Each structure stands twice: as structure tokens, then as C-alpha cells.
Amino acid sequence: MVYRGGAQPALLQPFRLSPVKKEANDIARLETALSVIDQKDVTENLRASLRVAVDTVNQASLYTNKAFQGGTDARNVLETSP
Fold first, then answer.
1. Conformational region of residue 33, where left means phi above 0, alpha means psi within -120 to 50, and beta covers everything else
2. CA Rg, the chain, in Å?
3. Angle between helices 44-59 and 27-35 (to 10 degrees)
4. Which is deepest, 6, 20, 58, 67, by most CB within 10 Å?
5. pTM for the complete prediction?
6. Contacts of 47 (CB under 8 A, 6+ apart)
7. Using CA of residue 64, residue 65, residue 68, residue 71, what is the dihedral sign?
8. Tell me, what DSSP letter sits at residue 5?
9. How far is it, in rounded angstroms, from Cα 49 to Cα 40?
């Protein structure tokens, strides 16, 4: 994943980024994850945003392209091209 400024946000550094499974998209699990992060980085706005995001994703029909050989490299080209 490519981040603006090149560095992974401090909030995400304790976590390895991997595909999200449906059962992981649960506010209780997110609250548990937030509890191990330095609380100065966890604002009420962040908590509210996560609640909205979880509700939205759980209620929406999501789709993605099928994986293909070289797909990660192709995505990197798309994300880093001007």
C-alpha cells in the first residue's frame, strides 16, 4: 500500500496490513485494537468515523477485481503513476 508522504501512518504501525475478512469488520474488534494504541492518537472523531465505516461496509455490496498474476505490481503502477 502506498501512503502520502511515503510512511505508514503511526496509527497503523502496530498492525500488519492484510486482507480484511468479513468477521473482522466488527466495531467490538476495532475497539479492542484501539485499546492497544497510544490513547492520545485515538480521538472521539476517530471512533465515530470507524463506527460509520463499519456500518457502511457491512451494509454495502462490495466488489473487487479478481486477482491475477502480477496484480500487485499492476496496482503499484496505478497508485504511484502521476
1. alpha
2. 15
3. 150
4. 58
5. 0.49
6. 31, 34
7. negative
8. T
9. 16
Condensed to tens digits (0 to 9), the pLDDT of residues 27-41 reads 888 888 888 888 888
User: What contacts 48, CB < 8 A, 6 or more positions away?
Assistant: none
Set of cell numbers at residue 46: 476517530
Give residue 38's pLDDT.
83
Task: Measure the CA–CA gap between 23 and 2, rounded to whole angstroms.
Answer: 25
CA-based torsion, 2, 61, 27, 21: positive or negative: negative
Cβ 56 vs Cβ 49: under 8 Å: no
Question: Going by C-beta distance under 8 Å and a sequence separation of 6 or more, which residues neighbour residue 42?
Answer: 34
